[in-house]
């Protein structure tokens, strides 16, 4: 059957129709985006007995534990594997030695069983089993147990941070931030007031995986019942899969909860807190 070869003009128009889910730009897709991986979130505050408090979420699993179980490492890059292990919690490190890989995979994805053995699953399982059994690299026998013994961890709990996430296709930045906040905290969109007179704040950094990220945060308050108890809903898949706890903290405690290597996030929060203080003083 004859099929007309598209000319350069129609090819260009077709490319122009592509919208990137990452940066929102036209003419390319997510996987070929030249920008850092972007997320949008909310720094929400309340006034409690004349003191400013901020809402934070704790991840259900540490980022490094998730990267490791998903097989996002090269078996030949021992230093990177050790870096991942050093950023896991002590409990997660124990799980690596005693649990079956399938159980760890289900834990990370918050599922009762493996519905489909994807290529990502098979590759990750192969790396995990090889590392647990041990293999030779440069005439040195490497095992998971040996690596865990050579690197320590100071962490007893997964990371704390502000609710955030990646945008959906053609979703506006602030709409993404609101949606992610509501999915992770359980609040409704009409209970959140994003303050338009506040600046947005962003951090650009390289993660432990050497990938560059850009996170943009908006300042917001709750429109009703800011002191209600926040409970993790096991029937909310977004929340149950990603969130362990949701709590309010003073500015001092926020800085303590952010891990020490997240320098950009600490600096971002300090600047945001200064603006909140200024606006709060003006409103008195």
UniProtKB/TrEMBL annotation:
**What span is annotated as the signal peptide, if there is one?**
none
**Which Pfam families does the record match to this protein?**
NUDIX
Keyword check for Hydrolase, yes or no.
Answer: yes
Q: List, for all copies, the residue spans of the domain called Nudix hydrolase.
A: 35-271
Q: Please list every transmembrane segment annotated in the UniProt record, as residue ranges.
A: none
Biological process according to GO: AMP biosynthetic process; ATP biosynthetic process
Keywords associated with the record: Hydrolase
The record places domain CCHC-type at: 20-35
A single GO molecular-function term is: bis(5'-nucleosyl)-tetraphosphatase (asymmetrical) activity
Name of the protein in its database record: Nudix hydrolase domain-containing protein
Organism from which the protein derives: viral metagenome
């Amino acid at each position: 059957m004859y099929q007309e070869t598209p000319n350069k003009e129609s090819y260009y128009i077709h490319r122009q129709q592509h919208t990137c889910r990452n940066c929102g730009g036209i003419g390319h897709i997510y996987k070929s985006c030249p920008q850092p991986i972007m997320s949008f979130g909310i720094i929400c505050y309340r006034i409690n007995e004349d003191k400013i408090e901020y809402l934070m979420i704790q991840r259900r699993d540490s980022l490094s534990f998730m990267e490791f179980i998903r097989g996002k490492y090269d078996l030949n890059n021992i230093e990177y594997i050790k870096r991942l292990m050093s950023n896991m919690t002590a409990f997660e490190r124990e799980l690596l030695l005693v649990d079956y890989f399938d159980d760890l995979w289900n834990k990370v994805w918050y599922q009762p069983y493996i519905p489909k053995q994807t290529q990502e699953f098979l590759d990750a399982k192969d790396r995990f089993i090889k590392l647990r059994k041990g293999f030779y690299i440069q005439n040195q026998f490497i095992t998971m147990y040996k690596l865990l013994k050579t690197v320590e961890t100071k962490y007893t709990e997964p990371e704390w941070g502000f609710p955030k996430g990646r945008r959906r296709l053609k979703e506006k930045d602030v709409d993404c931030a609101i949606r992610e906040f509501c999915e992770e905290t359980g609040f409704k969109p009409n209970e959140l007031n994003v303050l338009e007179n506040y600046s947005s704040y962003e951090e650009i950094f390289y993660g432990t995986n050497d990938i560059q990220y850009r996170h943009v945060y908006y300042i917001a308050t709750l429109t009703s019942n800011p002191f209600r108890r926040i409970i993790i809903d096991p029937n909310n898949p977004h929340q149950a899969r990603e969130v362990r706890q949701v709590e309010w903290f003073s500015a001092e405690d926020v800085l303590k909860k952010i891990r020490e290597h997240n320098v950009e996030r600490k600096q971002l929060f300090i600047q945001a807190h200064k603006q909140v203080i200024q606006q709060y003083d003006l409103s008195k």
